Amino acid sequence: MADTIPARPVVADTIPGRPVVAESVAGLGPVESVAVDGLEDQLARVALTWLAEPGNRAIWSLVQEVGAPAVLDRLIAGDVPDRKLRGSVAARLTAGDPRRFAEIALRRGERLGARLVVPSDPEWPRRLTDLATLELDTTGRYNHDIRPPLCFWVRGEWPLGRTLDRSIAIVGARAATDYGTNVTGDLAYSVACEGWTVLSGGAFGIDAAAHRGALAADGRTVAVLACGVERPYPAGNSALLERVAETGLLISEWPIGADPLRHRFLIRNRVIAAATAGTVVVEAAARSGATQTMSRVLALGRPAMVVPGPVTSAMSVGCHEILRSNPDARIVTSATEILEEVGRIGEYLADPPRGRERRHDRLDEESTLVMEALPANRSSTPELIAAEARLELPTVLRRLSLLEMAGLVVRAGNGYILRHSPSGTG
Amino acid sequence: MADTIPARPVVADTIPGRPVVAESVAGLGPVESVAVDGLEDQLARVALTWLAEPGNRAIWSLVQEVGAPAVLDRLIAGDVPDRKLRGSVAARLTAGDPRRFAEIALRRGERLGARLVVPSDPEWPRRLTDLATLELDTTGRYNHDIRPPLCFWVRGEWPLGRTLDRSIAIVGARAATDYGTNVTGDLAYSVACEGWTVLSGGAFGIDAAAHRGALAADGRTVAVLACGVERPYPAGNSALLERVAETGLLISEWPIGADPLRHRFLIRNRVIAAATAGTVVVEAAARSGATQTMSRVLALGRPAMVVPGPVTSAMSVGCHEILRSNPDARIVTSATEILEEVGRIGEYLADPPRGRERRHDRLDEESTLVMEALPANRSSTPELIAAEARLELPTVLRRLSLLEMAGLVVRAGNGYILRHSPSGTG
After folding, report:
1. What pLDDT, on a 0 to 100 scale, did the predictor assign at position B216?
2. 20 to 30 A Cα–Cα from B111, which one of A155, A293, A327, B218?
3. Are residues A407 and A282 in the same domain?
4. What pTM was estimated for this model as a whole?
């Protein structure tokens, strides 16, 4: 059967057909390694997302244990412990052969320039692994089935993982006000200028303004769809989404041909929350999709950022609701404040500064080396700093611009100078 | 000399001339009781606020120890431990005799219908005692001299203490936007309708809108001035402030004739913070008077409430700044949310509900009796509840309306019904 499947239309550097090892789950300890054929794995993962919605807890766990092809076999054979899942899979099987469907989808994907990315690929985004252990306080099916994606369909040239490494989600209401879309455009433009990828959901209103802002900055933007990547939804945004595919990435967990069903947006939102370094909500109605996304961001412990608005605006009610009910949600009013928040995780600050602790008490190792390489009372060039700190020049330049943003160094002529005395830097 | 001082033009029930006992300080243990003649005490307190600005830490402590008249004697004699205070008092003494000044001020006050209220009076507002032990993290003179007032000049018929018992401060920028004044007017109107006194600083913009909102509701409002109560400042608000004096209260720590000097507003702000059950900032520029008031509210542990606004508005920058830098500051968007916050202290909830604790686990005694007097599954009238709970009817009505606001009971016909099952009420 494998010879009916097209070779992958790929940017990535994996060789189709090589045996791969199923991903292990961070925090869950070693998972049994299952050797699976690459093409067979792809086919099975696509078939599984056709048989059941992505995020399904039982399926994801089984895939970790025995690999996607074996799970597919078991589902087709009706060998499913979960009675509800067994029923829905049986119903779906009456609509066709999942393997056949997957083959067609992969062939169509190739023709349309869409590639499939699976966890064994180098470009698989690592942050999504946090969904493996996520538990939400709230009940309901979409709060239960929040496991990592089985695969991503991707349109666009950038490697998925590295594009998402420095990414910020900016999301919000479809029925946004001028205030909301203007603020969103400004924020997206500014964070894109700083080299961050702007991720959103491709919808009207705030989402579209976020993508447009990043495009206006010639920055990178990613739209996470809840349908096949061949049919940008909503249709009114298709020109915008085509531009996103050309200069950034259009991605989806759902196979080519999948419809944008209403509940899929709720399933998709966990990816927006988990794929990014932090999420900003600009405008949101009460108890809306954006507030649901935020509950996932908060549960993941990622920066949950909220732009306030007039209390007289229905489109800011959801924003204020999030701020009122979650002490961990942060009010943000500018791109600088957003970058401060996301900078806290994995960027230039290892941990959020608490109480009277000074910001540079918490610098990561590279930033500390850069700070220590700066003379106490005069400026130094990036080249000299690189030599002194024994770091690569691009690393030094990157750290310097982050340290500048953090207010710890300032530009002086061709170089940089410490803003504070260097005592306590270590 | 006492016979040159006018009898007090007073609503209060103290008899001028009777010996009184200086206030003790809550939380400081018993303070030495100093028997002082009432008129002599008044005169000395007025003279002291003429010699040095209210809030002075050294003077206040001395007054607690030896009484106001003795402190005045010592200041006049140059017997002051604090060298800086000694210098400024000496300079002031060259301008005239403080006792003579105080006599004139009290006589003018009587003519103008302004009374003097001192700590030994029954109408003295008790909450101000919290300033006795307040310490701020920030430095600077106005953050040091934050002790309770020595006296209040009052215009208006309501007893000061009871008027402030259920009071909320609503303050903000003078250069307010239409958004700010509209929101302020709405909030003040609504909280005044619920029987709360609206306190503000009498300034243009947010302050004026707060007073007007309360007046529109036929509610009570108090303006705390930073100059003599005979000369409402700013002049542009004099018609408004005269109306406040007629239907509410105009109050000040400064004697009749005192000018509204710039630094006096910063001294005055501690009274706004300490006199009320909570403070709402509607619009504020960065690092403005309103943010200074809020630092006192937060240090006092009172509800510090902030109305957000557009991030594009300079008049909301201070609001968002307060929210971002103080985890204890609460975002509020409606009168209901404000009443929830102030209800937490001394109203229907003994303590803020935490975690999963149910709100009615924390009811005060009267509310608990009312809840227990309600049948499990049908409504009851206030009269029947009063009989069952062995409470007065007005008390029952008041508790019912608070319980209704808290969502614990709902109106049903002529009576009320429990919203939740009564288990766990006790």
Report:
1. 97
2. B218
3. no
4. 0.73
